[in-house]
Specification:
- The structure is a homodimer of 339-residue chains.
- By secondary structure, chain A is α/β, with parallel strands linked by helices.
- Chain A folds into 3 domains: 46 residues, Orthogonal Bundle (434 Repressor (Amino-terminal Domain)), CATH 1.10.260; 128 residues, Rossmann fold; 132 residues, 3-Layer(aba) Sandwich (Rossmann fold), CATH 3.40.50.2300.
- The first copy, chain A, is built from 13 helices and 12 strands.
- Chain A is elongated, with a radius of gyration of 26 Å.
- Chain A starts with 8 loop residues before the first helix and ends in a 5-residue tail after the last strand.
- Strand 2 of chain A pairs antiparallel with strand 2 of chain B, so a sheet runs across the interface.
- The structure holds a DNA duplex (30 and 30 nucleotides).
Amino acid sequence: MPPMKRANSLDVAQLAGVSRTTVSFVLNNVPGVAISEATRKRVLEAAQSLNYHPNAAGRKLVSGKSRTLGLVLCQSPEQVFADSLLPQVLLGVGQAAMQVGYQVLLRPTETSDPFNYIKTIRENFVDGIVLSGPRQDDPEIIRLYEEGFPVMLMGQLPGSEVPFVDVDASAGAEAATNHLLERGRRRIAIITNAPLTYTSARQRRDGYLHALTSAGIEYDDTLLQEGNFTPESGYQAMMGLLSNGSRPDAVFVASDVVAKGAMLAIKRSGLRIPEDLAIVGFDDIPLAEYFDPPLTTFHLPAYGLGWAAGDRLIRLVQNEGLDDKGVLMQSDLIVRESS
Amino acid sequence: MPPMKRANSLDVAQLAGVSRTTVSFVLNNVPGVAISEATRKRVLEAAQSLNYHPNAAGRKLVSGKSRTLGLVLCQSPEQVFADSLLPQVLLGVGQAAMQVGYQVLLRPTETSDPFNYIKTIRENFVDGIVLSGPRQDDPEIIRLYEEGFPVMLMGQLPGSEVPFVDVDASAGAEAATNHLLERGRRRIAIITNAPLTYTSARQRRDGYLHALTSAGIEYDDTLLQEGNFTPESGYQAMMGLLSNGSRPDAVFVASDVVAKGAMLAIKRSGLRIPEDLAIVGFDDIPLAEYFDPPLTTFHLPAYGLGWAAGDRLIRLVQNEGLDDKGVLMQSDLIVRESS
DNA sequence: TCCCTTTACTAACACGTGTTAGTAAATTTA
DNA sequence: TAAATTTACTAACACGTGTTAGTAAAGGGA
């Protein structure tokens, strides 16, 4: 195979015996211009035989659009490492994008320079960004939003107007807690998914608190322990709860991964699940169904969130308005055998 | 804030009172051209005050390079969904790329059109691609490679010359099986990670077979069951093994996720791990450490594989040669309590 | 003083595309 | 038949950058 150069639209034009403009008209199906059937066919055949594909850079330059979305992972590398739902999010964003011919550019966070993604934006590399797990100490998000650059959050930034897509975590935590109440549990502990400086951790705790209050149960702050994303932290937190004076008869763990550690702690303490201690998780990671016992947990619609984020961002990019600033997706508790 | 237009290099040039060429020279630190210190400073200040960032499309157009790597996930969406190691791979490729100023474009597979990624390549959108989980029925890979387009596989394509990065799966499976032999087990079953049409499944089985042969143990084909990525398939496979005449005293499951289902089957059958039946997995997913009991498993260096793939692909893109066509990474068996 | 080299820059081209304004020929209308 | 419209196309511009070839001015040596 000769190392022949990539064909450009001029090559196609010459082979078809027309102008470059005509080639563009035909290949882009520009509406409102008249092209004879014979010419159209000649152009298409020429393009085919030269294996012509329009150069993306040229197209971007003239159109000013890159047809590319940035997907920025704001979480620390350690968090990303063990994120069982990330593949679903990726697929969701990816499919939403591809469906309308957009590409997805992935930006993990660099520990050394967490806000470096800004450069990619300023260079017009992407038309908009999805920010997964936005951080409240990120100074750039609000600025971008106010400049009118299309931004879509996965997760929320309290007190801001930036459009977002999120699960209704508070409602989920409330459903999980209510389920335990319905099973007759009264002394219900909570292990958070993350330190309470994280918005998502506070939301899940608030749902838990609201369920307790509605049931007329007083909140006992010795029953709250902070998790930290890892099973290890769940193990430690559970051990802390069990070494307290009167032990709980149920625990809501706001993350399945953390819950896995908590389950190990419960078993190591010689207690049975759910007889001695019921446990409900949050996330519904793929393996939760195969925990021992299978974990009752609130389903986080990760694919749906990704898809919605991508879809709405594209709408923003194309200047179609959004009916509402934020979307809070509802979901369901999956009852299995741990409760 | 007025909706002022993005500054281009001409704006910078005019503000600094120099030509556009000079701006380019200064900002790119072009070696071998003389710029007075005063001018250099004026240009830098002008760029700063205009918040100038060179337009990526313009740059790509003239350079012919996009400084972007494609990361193509060839696995089916269902597989990707439950892939616990994907985040590590992504981070690996991402960090390798960012370190040298490259971007990563993510391409999940569309079920409707699995080889559609080709279009992205032909449009010069990316300089090279990493193919994760290449499929043998993919007609494009070889063609791209033969055209000289930079391709790096994560996983292998038997009988091809395409550069790859992979774990030494055969050695891993052999180590896992040897470990069981050392523990005194003699009737060792295997559940594959995937149907044997998959290269990775065959490699792992071959390692298992080789260990058995070396130990002088005859292979009993009733002890082989095919898994299919899911815990469910592991559960079924294990049930199959247990319903056979004489049950095994150990099982090597070539995927931790599949192993999780197998473990459930073992427990449901009233057997103890490892006393009645030892089990060793493959992959070392983040949760394996918290299985019940913690799973002995061969560590798949997912981050390392991703990083190596990215790094080597960039080398290919930049026409630096590779010392060897393929890299087979070695790794270790992590011994925990399931064996 | 004259010539040659170095310094510090700039004019002009090329990359490949989408699109606006315009034109000649063919067809329809008056 | 002359004028007006429609059909089928094309010339030329714009997007923003990197880079090659070239040019004045300044400096140095004989």
